[in-house]
Predict the 3D structure of the following.
Amino acid sequence: MRLVRALGIVLLSLLAGCADTDVTPLSPTVTTTVAEPVVTDRFVGDFETGNFDQWANCQNVAVRSAPCTSYHDPTSRMEVESAVVRQGRYAARFEVHQGDSPASLCCGDRAEVSGEEATRSDEGDDRWYQWSTRFGAGFPADRGWTVLSQWHADEDGPPPLAIASGPTNVGMNRWGVVISTYAAPGRPGPTYTPWSADIVTDSWIDIRLHVKWSIHDNVGFIELWIGGVPQIFGGEPCAGETRCMVRTLMPRGGGTYFKQGYYRDPAISAPGVVYHDGFTAATCESALAPL
């Protein structure tokens, strides 16, 4: 049985165009045509279905937390639309107002989608991620914290890795990469913001990340590209480097799963809008869907 599974991993990687075969695959997406079956070792959440059905779970003040396949409420704070897009025909628009805190969910106002198991990563996994984000006009990032994309641990707490904005963890009217380290669940370590930039509204930002998931500082790492350009990290723990060596998992906290949307400090009073489009998670760079 182990040999069959190993051969399956190699086959998935080759069909996806991956050169590396020593990584644990994501839950595969299988697309079958009459002519030829195509297997790609990746998760695609680009909203090109015209709804949120690619994603496992939807969370906002209207539905609280529910499977996205049952979410059909265009009057609520999140929608798939075609007026502002980066690729294809559709993108997702997330709007949050003060008080948009879904009942029974901690710990702020939100409108998010979650990939759950299809986007899961565990110790030793090597993953590539790509998508585009756009800040709406007047996006509030002058107080508190905001999370735009996050890799949430199985255990509660700030995400080990996030794309965030605001002065709490990034800077006034800035956005960037935030790394929250842990010694164990409930035992936070240093929080780092090794890369950040000024917020520019009404303009798409193409983001690519290469992440090695590990509880060990000498194994885990993050690499970042913005608009196709490799970034040099400017802050701890990897100033001056293009590969940030840092623990990316919570020890004894399980793995991570990916969430995207708009999640923020309940003290932020002004409404805000953010768009996301073209998300892909894959086991190698060549399997990423183009933006």
